[in-house]
Amino acid sequence: MNTRTFRITVRGVFDGLTDDQRAALLADADAHDVLRAAFTREGSLTYDIAARPAFVFRFSDTGEKEEDILGATERAETAAKSWLSERGYGFKNLRSSAEDLSQAPLGKRRRRAARSAEG
């Protein structure tokens, strides 16, 4: 059976941050810049707290069946909530989306590569 790769995005909004928490997020903002965004097993957090209180976690997970994406999404949400809660950050409006890369349409380059590999 083939292994499927899932990309899970968990979005939300920081809520009720104290001045100290906001300052800590601002101080660490470079490490969480969108230019450093990646889908990783442990999760990658991005935000721009100076512009707005929204955040995005990006997770990568795997499974063997299409329905494994549900468990992967649940694990990602739990990991995001844990990360925020462990640091005392309030949050709201948490929502997730997930993509099974085996079901994603091929981009132009990958279609071209697939054609040349066939012929």
Q: Which structural traits does this protein have?
A:
4-stranded antiparallel β-sheet, alpha+beta, 119 residues
The main β sheet shows up as: 4 strands, antiparallel
- Derived structural class: alpha+beta
| Poorly predicted runs of 5 or more residues | none
Radius of gyration: 17 Å
Helix content: 25-40%
Shape: elongated
The rounded distance between the terminal residues' Cα atoms is 26 Å
Q: Biggest sheet, strands in spatial order?
A: 2-3-1-4
Count every beta strand, where a strand is a DSSP E run of 2 or more residues.
4
Question: Can you tell me about this structure?
Answer:
- The chain is of the alpha+beta class and 119 residues long.
- It is 33% helix and 29% strand.
- The protein is built from three helices and four strands.
- Strands 2-3-1-4 form a four-stranded antiparallel sheet, with helices on one face.
- Strand 2 (44-47) and strand 3 (54-63) form a beta hairpin.
